[in-house]
Amino acid sequence: MENLTGKREPLLSTSAVSKWLGISTRTLCLWAECKEIPAIKVGRQWRFRESELANWLQSPDASKVKNLTFVHASASHG
User: Fold this and answer.
1) Where are the domains of the chain?
2) Helix, strand counts (H, E) of the chain
């Protein structure tokens, strides 16, 4: 995908995005697999566009997924 300047937007790795979002890479891959987060499958790996993630973070879909994660995490620690 090209940005407004005509340059291709770099794809982010699962490692970089999981650190950015503060979640495990496993959780991130599950979200990608379930189409809960915008992602692109490149071979056997998931990649992400920063602009799509930024838009997703502002959407109600992100809140829904983040709430499920925190509920699951607190239940497993309780």
Assistant:
1) 11-77
2) 4, 3
